[in-house]
Specification:
This protein is an alpha/beta fold. The protein has a domain at 7-103 and 128-166: Nonspecific Lipid-transfer Protein, Chain A. 36% of the residues lie in helices and 16% in strands. The chain has eight helices and six strands. It has helices at residues 12-28, 77-80, 91-94, 104-123, 143-148, 155-160, 167-170, 187-197; strands at residues 7-8, 38-45, 58-65, 68-72, 84-90, 163-164. The strands form two sheets. Strands 4-3-2-5 form a four-stranded mixed β-sheet. The longest helix is centred in the middle third of the chain and has 20 residues, at 104-123. The protein is globular and about 55 Å long.
Length: 199
């Protein structure tokens, strides 16, 4: 990995790389793209100013539309209107966890850990006012397999290998898959975490 450039989660360079990776995985799966109308998008909010790079929104996407696959560090209404997977989340909730390598079992555990964090935030009156999922996820046959890549080295792990830890989130207590643990934070850490979340 020493010869591979790394970037912080949500940086313009990383978003460009993530979108390019999604497009590449779909193309190499050799799917009949004419059978799909599908999109994938992620938006991150409340990033540290230094990561914005002049952007109003921090987003990336890839999609299959009219028989073609495309993507980038942008997000169009066209992509958002497609069935698929569209999410918007606070950067501080997922920045650290997104740099961890895991298999399907690890992915399920990360999701469980994220639910615990959401519940703990609600208990202290800092719950999110909106659902992070913009629509019900849709995964047509072939898409999930394509994004898992060859030998399971799929979208998440490829992009995770290109991440460097951001100083704002690295010193919080975390689960084994990088999800912040609110109940183990000091009062000072909680205050910083809430501020990072914009809550």
């Amino acid at each position: 990995m020493n010869d591979l450039e790394k970037w912080e989660f949500g940086s313009l360079e990383w978003c460009q790389f993530a979108a390019k990776t999604g497009v590449k995985l779909i193309k190499q799966a050799k799917l009949d793209l004419s059978k799909y109308e599908w999109g994938f998008s992620e938006e991150y909010t409340h990033l540290p100013e230094r990561l914005l790079a002049g952007r109003d929104k921090v987003v990336w996407h890839f999609m299959i539309h009219n028989g073609k696959v495309s993507g980038g560090a942008s997000l169009s209404i066209e992509c958002l209107e497609l069935p698929g997977f569209h999410v918007c989340s606070e950067w501080a909730k997922i920045a650290h966890a997104s740099s961890f390598i895991y298999d399907l079992k690890g992915q399920r555990q990360r999701m469980n850990n994220s639910q615990v964090l959401d519940n703990d935030l609600k208990m202290v009156g800092k719950g999110s006012k909106t659902n992070s999922l913009k629509s019900k996820p849709v995964w047509p046959p072939g898409i999930g397999e394509a994004l898992m890549g060859i030998d399971g080295e799929g979208l998440h792990n490829i992009t995770a290998r290109r991440l460097e830890y951001s100083p704002e989130v690295r010193d919080f207590p975390h689960t084994e898959f990088g999800v912040p643990i609110l109940t183990k934070m000091t009062e000072e850490q909680k205050t910083r975490f809430y501020k990072l979340l914009g809550r």
